[in-house]
Amino acid sequence: MADNRITEYRDELQGRLRQAGDAYQRAQAASRDIGSVTDGFKCDIRLPYLDDIVQSVLECWLKGLLQGYTAANQGIGTASLDLDDLEADLKRLRRSDDREVCVSETDPWHEQVNQMLSNYDFAALVQALDSRSDALEDRGLNEAADAIVRILNFHSRWTELRPTRRGRFLLLRQRIYFSYGSYDHSAAQGMYDLARALEVAERDSGLSGLSVGAFAAHQAFRSMGYDQRFPSRTVLGEQSAMPCTVFKDKVEYKLALDDADTLLAFLKIHASDKFQDDLAEAA
Question: How many CB atoms neighbour CB 88 within 10 A?
Fold first, then answer.
């Protein structure tokens, strides 16, 4: 399988590089042709450096590969692969002599492409893609769990923001700020990020309806205009499994203890080690 992909990927990248170089040469020729029929009129077509074009072609091709591997291996998480998941050597094409890439009669473009590709480690690329893909779903679960811990202040040094049990519910709090006539953008963004993370937790744990309250809060906060403020104790997403009550400097989500125990179990399994002591306290 890997050998087939090595050949396939080499052919794909070779085709793109040849196409880009051929287009570059046509643009250069067009500039010369205009000058030849306009009595020396200077047509200054400013083309980017060919090295930059080569780099752009490579990165565009790699991004397409990474998107495909993400779609095939993301699972129930939302993590995605990007260029940062690849080593530096896999994000660069070079000639064996390290000379600048150029187009000339003595150095044909297609030969330069073949030389650059002969120096590129396609086997290492395939290995890296497989390695990162194998861990992608677990990474997505970890990212979701860590987001829930951070946004809902399981790790907060401020006692008034940490989760507390009250009767049959666990109360979870998110900080909000109102200044200069509007709520800070971080409030609505945090609610959106929380909702997306809770969706992952729901798919993994079998819970349902938790993300609805956070999405409702996100939409409500986004819709607030300048100098508009929620009355204290406004309830958003009231019919959801995790309704949200707005206070002056925080919102408070209310979660039934049975659901809270299931959510905490998800967090203990998937959250980073640095949060485990905080989660033990919340339990």
Answer: 6
174 conformational bin, left if phi > 0, alpha if psi -120 to 50, beta if neither: beta
212 closest CA partner among 228, 227, 191? 191
List pLDDT tens digits, range 158-215: 778 999 999 999 999 999 888 777 888 889 999 999 999 999 999 999 999 999 999 9
Can you state the percent helix, strand and coil of the chain, rounding each to 5? 60, 10, 30
Residue 67: how many other CB atoms lie within 10 Å? 13
Question: Is 1's pLDDT higher than 60?
Answer: no
pLDDT in tens, 88-143: 999 999 876 666 666 665 568 888 899 899 999 999 999 999 999 999 999 999 99
Q: DSSP letter at 174?
A: E
Distance CA 68, CA 73 (A): 9
Asked if 122 and 9 count as a contact pair (C-beta separation under 8 A), the reply is yes
H helix or E strand, kind and range, residue 251: strand 250-256
Please give the Cα distance from 189 to 217 (Å, whole number): 10
Pure H helices in 37-121: 50-73, 109-118
Closest CA to 216 of 196, 249, 240, 252: 240
Q: Please state the pTM of the whole predicted model.
A: 0.83
Sign of CA dihedral 194, 185, 83, 24: positive
